[in-house]
Structure formats: structure tokens, C-alpha cells
Amino acid sequence: MTRPDDLVRAVEATLFAAEEPMTVEAISTHLGGADVKAALAELAATYKDRGVQLVERARRWHFQTAPDLAHLLRREREEVRRLSRAATEVLAIVAYHEPVSRAEIEAIRGVQTAKGTLDVLMEAGWVRIVGRREVPGRPVIYATTPEFLTHFGLESRRDLPGLDELKAAGLLDPVDDALADAMETADQRREAAEAEAGLASEDESA
Questions:
Q1: Can you give the CATH number for the domain in which 90 is found?
Q2: Which UniProt key words apply to this protein (predicted)?
Q3: Which of 4-13, 23-32, 53-62, 153-162 has the lowest mean pLDDT?
Q4: What is the pTM assigned to this prediction?
Q5: 137: exposed, middle or buried (C-beta count within 10 Å: 0-12, 13-18, 19+)?
């Protein structure tokens, strides 16, 4: 491949044939170590307004149907599966606090969390076990998945909206209380951590 166009076409073919989303490194390795970042950017721009789009989710690239056309591909009417309030709260907590253990989820919610609630989220493909906390008992810790990001149209967790953004967009119904509580807790923790870091810096400079 000596021409830039050849590399773009090779990247395009590689992603079309891939069985699952690929990282930049995996694509590069597949194409003999080529620098594929510019080719990916060009392809993403080319497909931006088409029926199929090239997107990056959780640092992995793949083609997907344009969101506004997805309904055309459904052969049968899908039954909307609504999450329970408990599942919604747990999903919000995992998304904003991951990695997090069941005990930590319960501490934030203030009530016990049934194992079935986490099972529902894992069956949906939105939450997964990512390891164990290195504390007595070594509890399992949970985090969100690339499928979670894809479903909600996020490139990474950095794109998770803040409470003010959701309120302004009117997107808090029907899970407003659950999301608000989880995000307010996350915001409070971040503010406390930043304040503590600021005090530590002042002490060091004094």
C-alpha cells in the first residue's frame, strides 16, 4: 500500500470484515504496523451522514447503522423493557462511580441491593465484573461495558452528562430521582476530592 487511498480502503475493508469492534492498535497490527489514525478520521468523516456510520466507542472502532434509521431494520416490533427503579439507580451508580462493589453501591443507595438487580444489568450487557477489591473478603467490583456506551451513544464515560445538563435538556423523566441522586453524590465526591487536593497543595507550598 503506497497510496493514502489504499490505506483508507484497507482500513475500511478490515473493519467491515471484523467480527467485533477493533482498537487502533489492532487495526494497525492487522495492516502491518501502518499508522491508521488519519485513515480512520477520513473514513469517519466520509460516513458521517450516511446510513452506515463509522464510530469509536470505548477506544474501539466499528460500523453501525445511523441511529435515525435503526427502526427500519427491526423486523418485529420490539417490546420496550423498562428497568426497575432499583436497576436504574444501580446502573447510574456504576456508571458514575466505577469500579464499584455491591457494598459500595448499597452505601450510596442507602438500601440493600438484590443480586438479581445486578444480574439484570449484566444480562443486558451494560454491566460486567472487572475484578475484586483488594480488601478483606475481596468483594467483586463492577463497571460498565462498551455495549453500555454504544446503547447510550457515548464515546467514553467522560461524555456522561452532568445533572445540570440533563435538567436543561428535560431528560430526567422517568428516572430523574435515581439519576439525580447518583450524580449529586458523584459531584459531591469530586468536589470534596478537589478541595482536599487543594488543601494538600497549600500545605506543601507553605
A1: 1.10.10.10
A2: Cell cycle, Cell division, Chromosome partition, Cytoplasm
A3: 153-162
A4: 0.51
A5: exposed
179 lies in some domain: yes
Domain range for 91: 85-198
Q: Between 181 and 66, name the one with better pLDDT.
A: 66
Whole-number pLDDT of residue 176? 43
Are 111 and 60 contained in the same domain? no
- pLDDT tens for residues 61-70? 999 888 888 7
61, 8: one domain: yes
pLDDT exceeds cutoff 80 at 165? no
